């Protein structure tokens, strides 16, 4: 067994994870899978605006259990769907986050694993092999957990989905994104003005977010958004201070313009 990051709470799930049902499903599709040995049965549990707990089992019945920042199925597209529901994933999710997961999904995917991980435990040879592949290809998914200790894990949990004035922080697989929404105390007719002011100040805080806003569709008016690299948070960047400062600058500029118009 090999573990990275604060993996202690994952060990019992790793030990109790039944590999035979996943292996049987892999065997069922064996003739249809190109390079069969590179495929695994992946299962995930999660909730909106929170991290995910996952497991995967390969054709040699080796297993891995971990915590990923984003839903692993966002990048690890399933080839065949599965109805497996490993109960230990739900149990460890509740133990980690003190709430039940909202959904579960399982399916066959092809390695390498493509989602950034905060902690992971698994069979030595499987985990070491996949981490070596990441080193060769310059990627950082399972191996990202090497940078995470309990303090950083708790910090990531604290920041994810946090509201700071009219800024919202969300953790995606590759980086965090700070979204500025129209403040409740400002009329929607001034949204274009606030948006223009936000874009001007945003440049001082990070690169513009160019991803899909569909997952943030619950917000009726998004002013702008910028990305925060995870390495910046690891180095101690005070995200709350930056977001609060940015919101205050935007409000101040807005008040100045409105005073000029009076």
The structural domain count equals 2
So how many helices? Answer: 8
Terminal residue distance: 69 Å
CA-based gyration radius: 21 Å
Catalogue the unreliable spans. none
Q: What general outline do the C-alpha atoms trace?
A: elongated
InterPro entries: DUF4895 (IPR032606)
Outline the structure in words:
With 262 residues, the protein is of the alpha+beta class. It folds into 2 domains: 6-147, no CATH class; 161-261, Yope Regulator, Chain: A. The chain has 8 helices and 11 strands. The chain has helices spanning 11-16, 20-28, 87-97, 124-137, 150-159, 191-202, 230-234, 239-261, and strands at residues 2-4, 39-46, 52-58, 63-68, 80-82, 103-110, 117-122, 163-164, 167-171, 176-181, 222-228. The strands form 2 sheets. Strands 1-7-4-3-2-6-5 form a 7-stranded antiparallel beta sheet, with helices on both faces. Helix 6 packs across helix 8. It is elongated, with a radius of gyration of 21 Å. The termini are far apart. The relative contact order is 0.13.
Write the layout of secondary structure elements.
Blueprint: E1 2-4, H1 11-16, H2 20-28, E2 39-46, E3 52-58, E4 63-68, E5 80-82, H3 87-97, E6 103-110, E7 117-122, H4 124-137, H5 150-159, E8 163-164, E9 167-171, E10 176-181, H6 191-202, E11 222-228, H7 230-234, H8 239-261
Antiparallel strand pairs: 1-7, 2-3, 2-6, 3-4, 4-7, 5-6, 8-9, 9-10, 10-11
Helix pairs in contact: 6-8
Pfam families: DUF4895
